[in-house]
Amino acid sequence: MIDMDAARAMLGRQAILLPDAVPSHPLLDGKTEIGRGEYSIVIDKGDGEHVYKIVSSPADYFLYTADDRPRGPHFPIVFADHGVIGRAQSGYPFHLIEMERLYPLAEGSPAAELSRRLIECYWSACAQWSRLGADMGRIALYHLTVEPMKVGDSLQEALRALSDFVEEYQVLPDILNANNLMMRADGTLVFSDPVFIA
Ligand SMILES: Nc1ncnc2c1ncn2[C@@H]1O[C@H](COP(=O)(O)OP(=O)(O)O)[C@@H](O)[C@H]1O
Ligand SMILES: [Mg+2]
After folding, report:
1. Which pTM value belongs to this model?
2. How far, in Å, is the centroid of ligand 2 from the Cα of 36?
3. Cβ-based neighbours of 150, under 8 Å, separated by 6 or more
4. In this structure, which of 9, 85, 92, 182 has its CB flanked by the most CB atoms within 10 Å?
5. What 3-state class would DSSP assign to 153?
6. Does residue 56 lie in a domain region?
């Protein structure tokens, strides 16, 4: 079994939570916070279908809004870019993105099993390329796209799209974290937050 905390520390991804308060905004006032990570805050829109994601990482902003961003069944559906709504303590602007509501991987579900296999393959590729330091994750992801794995054609295609995006936008993969892999209500595995900027 992978020691996730140690593995993530090796990739410079210790668990840190964004310290900022939710910016005041007409779309957000009075709504409930349902998730928070190192760079983002997720607010329930209240209609059961959409969430507002307040993102401070430029990597996330590119991923959700670029014309050539990866699409398909394993990437989140984005409905609107509501613009800049403030600035994080980190100095980055807060962009407000309206996207589909996703769910934590249900224990024992096919999506959870698939993500477990993916994380294991990714981690063993990382171990193989660990001497590359900061480039390890990027190269490991590329390696997964050329070495057939037992994750199915659909996910393999999504990994290729993710790898292309990572190369094009000079960001780093962040898939060694079950929090960044979520599912749709129909059980599809979704890369909800698969990139970061070092
Ligand atoms: N589309 C979504 N629907 C519901 N909850 C979400 C969604 N995206 C993220 N979350 C929740 O919010 C938390 C932080 O989101 P994440 O995308 O990982 O942000 P960060 O960029 O800060 O790592 C996640 O761990 C997850 O629980
Ligand atoms: Mg995250």
Report:
1. 0.93
2. 8
3. 117
4. 182
5. helix
6. no
- Residue 166, domain member (yes or no): yes
Q: Which residue has the higher pLDDT, 109 or 176?
A: 109
Per the DSSP assignment, residues forming a β-bridge with 41 are 36, 54
Q: Would you say residue 150 lies in a domain?
A: yes
**13 with 177: CB under 8 angstroms?**
yes
| Residue 152 belongs to a domain | yes
Provide the domain limits for residue 137. 105-196
Spell out which residues line ligand 1, taking CB within 6 angstroms: 18, 34-40, 42, 51, 53, 57, 60, 76, 99, 101-102, 179-180, 192-193
| Domain count of the fold of the chain | 1
3-state secondary structure of 54: strand
Token pair recorded at residue 108: 């024992």
140-154 pLDDT per residue, tens: 999 999 987 778 899
**β-pair partners for 95:** 55, 84
